[in-house]
Amino acid sequence: MLAPQLPIAGDRWHRHAAEVDALVSGIPAIDARRCYLTGFSFGANGVFDLACAQPGRWAALWAVDPTRVPRHDPQLPVWLSFGEVSRTRKASYIEALRLQGDTAAERVYADDGDDHVGAARRAYADERIYAWLLGHARRERG
Questions:
Q1: For residues 85 and 103, what is the distance between their CA atoms, to the nearest angstrom?
Q2: CA of 37: how far to CAs of 42, 49, 73, 85, 113, in Å?
Q3: 102 domain-assigned
Q4: Residue 129 maps to a domain
Q5: What is the tally of structural domains in the chain?
Q6: Which residues are within 8 A (CB) of 90 and not within 5 positions of it... i.e. 6 or more apart?
Q7: 45 and 13 in contact (C-beta within 8 Å)?
């Protein structure tokens, strides 16, 4: 597990895609097929920004209560955990990312009615999501 933090708070992950890529690439004996990206709040925005900036790097994405609908579809399996911030534009997220409520799907969402911080607490304690991620290993291009 790697947990980089921005030097200055804000919706700025798109500016640090190369740095995150270098950090991940520097991990010895990493299974590149099982690199998953998750983030909370502005970090959840970064999940979508980094995935679009780094095609082929990530196997699946998990965004927890992002503050804005992604600008582009990352074309990867996505689990979105809604909280009070993202819930206000829930329909836009579902449409933009083609999300479904079925946890067996490639594009999933869960909304347990939590506030912003509560969404993160509940999401990161939910074993279903870890199992879902592990079921989405990236296929090597051949």
A1: 22
A2: 13, 11, 15, 20, 23
A3: yes
A4: yes
A5: 1
A6: 82, 111
A7: yes
Q: How many residues does the chain have?
A: 142
pLDDT of 142: 43
Report yes or no on 59 lying in a domain.
yes
What is the spatial distance between Cα 115 and Cα 135, in angstroms, rounded to a whole number? 28
Residue 114: inside a domain:
yes
The confidence band for 140, taking pLDDT boundaries of 50, 70 and 90, is low
Q: What pLDDT digit, counting tens, does each position of 41-90 carry?
A: 999 999 999 999 999 999 999 999 999 999 999 999 999 999 999 999 99
Enter the pTM of the model: 0.92
φ, ψ of residue 100 to 5 degrees: the values are -130, 165
Q: Which amino acid is at 51?
A: A
Tell me the residue range of the domain where 89 lies.
Answer: 32-134
